[in-house]
Design brief:
With 180 residues, the chain is mainly alpha-helical. The chain has six helices and two strands; from the N terminus they run ααααααββ. The longest helix has 24 residues.
Length: 180
């Protein structure tokens, strides 16, 4: 009789353990965390240091192959949500693959960057909730917006051979674009 009670209490424990192992092993969004031994990074891109710093701080984890995976990104269901967001981010824009984009693709991506940053759509609210330093101030939003606009104009200018626009800092610490 005592053995039967022992078995009855052990079966649910074993089943729960097996379910937990299966739960942890399931990754519905593919292998987002694959290791890339030679990823091109934000550091490899030609852009002002201030822009690089902002992109590293607020964009790199979802939009490059240099994602820093925190411990909770290995625990379901948080891992599923994080992997989904990173996968979608990389599918849309991966700074590690910037050199592989055509001029037209870069133009489109720069327009998208300017738009989503200006409209406060990026970084995602759930990312900002956990990464408090990723939140962009209005001044930082303006820096990224002006940079993306300038780079887009440069790409357009290089394809039409018109003078390349220049970016300068005004006395009021605002960035301005000029064709002179």
């Amino acid at each position: 009789m005592r053995a039967s009670v022992w078995r009855r209490s052990l079966v649910p424990v074993v089943a729960l353990f097996f379910a937990a192992v299966c739960w942890i092993a399931i990754h519905p969004f593919g292998r987002v965390k694959q290791f890339d031994p030679h990823p091109a990074g934000i550091s490899d891109l030609t852009m002002p240091l201030e822009v690089k710093t902002l992109i590293r701080r607020s964009c790199q984890d979802c939009h490059s192959s240099q994602t820093v995976w925190p411990w909770y990104s290995y625990v379901p269901p948080a891992s599923w949500l994080i992997e989904r967001d990173v996968g979608r981010g990389r599918d849309h824009l991966n700074f590690s693959g910037w050199a592989r984009y055509s001029a037209k693709e870069r133009e489109k991506l720069l327009a998208d960057i300017a738009s989503v940053v200006k409209n406060h759509e990026m970084p995602l609210p759930q990312y900002e909730l956990i990464h408090l330093d990723a939140k962009l101030s209005e001044a930082e939003i303006d820096i990224l917006y002006q940079w993306a606009r300038l780079e887009r104009r440069k790409l357009k200018a290089s394809s039409t051979s018109s003078p390349s626009p220049k970016l300068f800092l005004g006395q009021n610490s605002h960035l301005y674009i000029t064709n002179r």
